[in-house]
Design goal:
Elements (H helix, E strand, L loop, with lengths): L2 H15 L1 E2 L1 H8 L3 H13 L4 E4 L3 E4 L12 H17 L2 H17 L2 H11 L15 H16 L1 E7 L18 E13 L2 E8 L4 E6 L3 E10 L19 E7 L4 H6 L5 E7 L2 E8 L3 H9 L4 E5 L1 H16 L2
Antiparallel strand pairs: 1-3, 2-3, 4-5, 4-8, 5-6, 6-7, 9-11, 9-12, 10-11
Helix pairs in contact: 1-3, 1-5, 2-3, 4-5, 4-6
Length: about 325
């Protein structure tokens, strides 16, 4: 953090916390106490009314630096909850920015609004999502690298591993390490708690989607590309190539659990007297094998035949383990 940013941050911290010692400010900004002394002196010379009290620390004269914008408690909660979400879902750099932004927002809130916002915010909590909550170290690192690659318009190279590799018949994926891809990253999308990369895949010759948790050995290349001017990530609607229809009968005692455990592949649920029939659309049967097995004997595959056989073979292998 440069001197100018640190001096502004000191003023915001004093407004938010009312009184802080030099040693406290030094800890917050990870600098020396001597540097804090110099910063405070520079602020005073610039006209900022900071007063120091022995044993109490520094504080701002009451009424100084009134916030240029006013937030209601509800508006403040929306902003703070958004920052909580960013802090949990993004990489380290954005987590730090979220913390900094939260400190600035809290600093400009009048005391009564800040207390009311804290009370309202106490009634909200983000629990773990489908991907296990906060990002893993690998996904977080991918986010940071891909964000830079998108901004700088640089091609990336990585190995991509997906369940269908095992049955794809592609020699390069037979070792379980996935296919090597080179792609021009266009944007990042958070879908159902999972980060997806939207990119032009050189191997497939078109726009594809890559789940960050399946990316390995990511490298940002020096090769530049130019994103098409006609491409708008917010208006972009991917072509759905899930053409394989799967129908599974679920026992009645599991029907509610199936509805609550909604999956990306699920198309509809038909209520029957003896349970439900779930219709799903997938690209490959391997995408849905674990979901079917997860319901044990409570699920019966109706179609396609290839999935019936796959579940049968897997059940035989499981039986051998016992």
């Amino acid at each position: 953090m440069n001197k100018t940013d640190r001096m502004l941050a000191i003023v915001l911290e004093l407004q938010r916390r009312r009184s802080l010692r030099a040693v406290d400010l030094a800890d917050i900004f990870e600098t020396s106490v001597r540097t804090i002394y110099r910063d405070v002196q520079a602020l005073c010379e610039a006209g900022v009314p900071i007063v120091g009290s022995p044993g109490q620390g520094y504080s701002l004269v009451e009424g100084y630096f009134l916030p240029p914008i006013g937030f209601t408690a509800e508006e403040a909660v929306v902003l703070l909850l958004g920052l909580d979400f960013v802090r949990r879902r993004f990489d380290r750099e954005y987590r730090l920015r979220a913390d900094s932004s939260r400190a600035k927002i809290e600093a400009v809130l009048p005391g009564s609004v800040r207390q009311e916002a804290a009370r309202l915010r106490a009634g909200w909590k983000f629990l773990q999502g489908e991907d296990g909550g906060a990002q893993t170290g690998a996904v977080s690192a991918h986010l940071a690298s891909l964000r830079r690659a998108i901004i700088e318009e640089k091609t990336v190279r990585f190995r991509y591993i997906k369940p269908s590799d095992a049955v794809s018949g592609d020699a390069s994926s037979a070792d379980g390490r996935g296919l090597v891809r080179e792609a021009d990253p266009y944007g990042l999308v958070l879908v159902g708690g999972l980060w997806m990369l939207v990119a032009y895949c050189h191997l497939r010759g078109g726009i594809r989607h890559f789940r960050l948790s399946r990316i390995r050995e990511l490298t940002v290349l020096d090769r530049r590309f130019r994103r098409p001017e006609s491409f708008d990530l917010h208006a972009y609607k991917p072509v759905d190539d899930r053409n394989l229809i799967v129908r599974v009968r679920i026992r009645p005692e599991l029907a509610q659990q199936v509805e609550e455990a909604d999956t990306f592949y699920m198309e509809r649920i038909e209520q029957l007297e003896d349970g439900v029939i779930v219709t799903l659309r997938v690209r490959h049967i391997e995408e849905i094998v674990r979901w079917v097995l997860g319901w044990g004997a409570g699920a019966t595959v109706l179609e396609p035949e290839s999935l019936k056989q796959r579940i049968f073979d897997e059940a035989k292998q499981m039986l051998k383990c016992y």
